[in-house]
Specification:
The protein is an all-alpha fold. Helix content is 43%, strand content 2%. It has a two-stranded antiparallel ribbon with strand order 1-2. Strand 1 and strand 2 form a beta hairpin. It starts with 9 loop residues before the first helix and ends in a 14-residue tail after the last helix.
């Protein structure tokens, strides 16, 4: 089986909204990135994957600095977002275009999205369930603001969103941005 990395990358699979291929890439990446044993030798399966060029980085970015996770958010594909966010190997804290995933979701929630059936709140809840989520990571694009800054500065004053963020264990209400 021959692979063209550009045509069979996780990012392309997301753009094509091909869930079967996305699951394949997650499975492939999971097999290659299993927790390492104490022995220094690589498993036969890992050696085979390297030799066959089957290794695929599910966190890789496009030339436009977008990962599969951010592409799925742009496409508003709930099923793919669930699959990616639920995968512990997806780097939920990775920046894309100088924004964190959490800040991007919160920014989307602060807009008046009347008539849109896509639930950013559902995506936020999924992300907040990740143990490795850094809720205080600033986004350079938003003048080093955290998700709480973004929510508080919104023009539609989404009080429910602000209250939800304030309930997050470890949220830093004193975090500083370039604005103070």
């Amino acid at each position: 089986f021959w692979f063209n990395r550009e045509l069979t990358s996780p990012k392309i699979a997301v753009e094509l909204e091909n869930m079967e291929l996305i699951k394949y890439f997650i499975d492939l990446y999971s097999q290659y990135n299993k927790p390492k044993s104490k022995s220094k030798s690589k498993s036969k399966k890992n050696k085979q994957n390297e030799n066959n060029n089957l290794y695929v980085d599910i966190n890789a970015k496009t030339a436009e600095d977008r990962s599969a996770l951010f592409i799925a958010l742009k496409l508003k594909n709930r099923e793919i977002l669930h699959e990616l966010i639920s995968c512990p190997l997806i780097d939920i804290n990775e920046d894309s275009r100088e924004r964190t995933f959490l800040c991007k979701v919160v920014k989307k929630m602060t807009r008046n999205n009347f008539g849109i059936s896509f639930s950013y709140n559902e995506i936020l809840d999924l992300a907040l369930n990740r143990n490795d989520l850094d809720v205080n990571k600033p986004s350079r694009k938003y003048d080093d603001q955290t998700c709480l800054h973004v929510a508080c500065k919104s023009s539609n004053h989404n009080i429910r969103l602000v209250n939800k963020l304030l309930k997050i264990k470890g949220i830093n209400v004193n975090a500083q941005s370039k604005e103070g």
